[in-house]
Amino acid sequence: MISAGEVHVPGLPTDRIGTIAMAIAAQRSFSNDRPSGIKMEAGAPLLNDEFTDQDFAEMVALGINQLGEVGIGPVKSVSRAAELVKIARKHGMTSITHTGGPSISTSQRMGAEQILEIAPDIIGHINGGYTALAPNQIRCLCEGCLGALEIVHNGNEFAAVTTLNYAREMNQLDRIVIGTDSPAGCGVPALGMLRAIALLSSFGDVPPEKAVCFATGNTAKVRKLNRGILKIGREADILIACGPLGGAEPSVLGSFSSGDLPSITSILIDGRLVVRQSKNSPPPSVTPEITLRT
Ligand SMILES: [Zn+2]
Predict the structure, then answer these.
(1) Fold assignment, 98-231
(2) How far is residue 253's CA from residue 258's CA, in Å, rounded to a whole number?
(3) How far is the CA of 153 from the centre of ligand 1 (A)?
(4) Residue 23's beta-bridge partner residues?
(5) Helix, strand, or coil here: 289?
(6) Which residues of 119-145 are buried (b: 16+ CB within 10 A; e: fewer)?
(7) Could you tell me the fold of the domain covering 236-294?
């Protein structure tokens, strides 16, 4: 799981030192205690007008590798935000924007013009974190910005498919990444990533194996994570799934193509079995057996 900023913490500090402290506290907290064993990339500071070059260097040295959504928080000037993103990038931090209409009181509308000036690594929730941009603005971002195109579950489904179509037209499906943009007004829906994969596979008519790559390898690439790809030397974080009991399509990929979700039968983190049969996903069409190697 990857934080886009700890923006919903009650009483979130907005001063320079408080923002840095908050990011470090979040990063340390989730490193020390991993809920259900998940790897949480937490600690994503919102930009602050007072940040210096030295602040970014120190944050990176302390393990903060990503910014929270640019467009939320105290920095209101787009040119100042662009300047700060450039400095963050120089130190190796990944940047992401808020995109579309405001979602919370401290966010502002972020249209194509603002995002092109900021030039983030990831155009966050390009299909709206509540309210999406118009299709011509989305096209402008796909064509004019080199950043990854994040399609989220808690967004506008029409804008999600519109973005997918533009990326396909441009032969740039490798830019698409999937997120949930949760928590949001609609909460933290279970299975958000899988639902977004199913949306793009069914309504978006993209091969399901490619839609899975949006959520795994593409994300790992832009976030510089040593996981998300099955390869020797990568962290062995693996979902094992099968078709859902009673589904129209018996296979995992077929269930995505038909808009259904597969059954997650096992979750391995660092090669160790941590979940045996997800209770959130549907029951499996085949009960998996685990055989211990002797
Ligand atoms: Zn946002």
Answers:
(1) TIM Barrel (3.20.20)
(2) 9
(3) 13
(4) none
(5) coil
(6) bbbbbbbbbbbbebbeeebbbbbbeeb
(7) Urease, subunit C; domain 1 (2.30.40)
pLDDT digits over 250-288, tens only?
Answer: 999 999 999 999 999 999 999 999 999 999 999 999 988
What is the pairing mode between strands 238-242 and 263-269?
Answer: antiparallel
Strand partners, 41: 2
Q: How far away, in angstroms, is 129 Cα from ligand 1 center?
A: 5
pLDDT at residue number 291: 87
CA distance 43 to 223: 14
Measured in angstroms, how far is the CA atom of residue 284 from the centroid of ligand 1? 35
| Residue 81 to residue 95: CA distance in whole angstroms | 11
Those residues whose C-beta lies under 8 Å from the C-beta of residue 122, and which sit 6 or more positions away, are: 94, 95, 96, 97, 147, 148, 150, 177, 222
End-to-end Cα separation, the chain, in angstroms: 34
Q: Say how many Å lie between the CA of residue 47 and the centre of ligand 1.
A: 14
Q: How far is the CA of 69 from the centre of ligand 1 (A)?
A: 6
Cα 235 to ligand 1 centroid, rounded to whole Å: 29
Q: Is the pLDDT of residue 106 over 80?
A: no
Domain ranges of the chain: 1-94, 98-231, 236-294
Q: What is the pLDDT of residue 103?
A: 81
10, 2, 65: which is closest to 38 by C-alpha? 2
Q: How far apart are CA 64 and CA 292, in angstroms?
A: 39
Q: How many CB atoms lie within 10 A of CB 28?
A: 14
Residue keyed to tokens 């190796």 = 92
Confirm whether pTM is higher than 0.85: yes
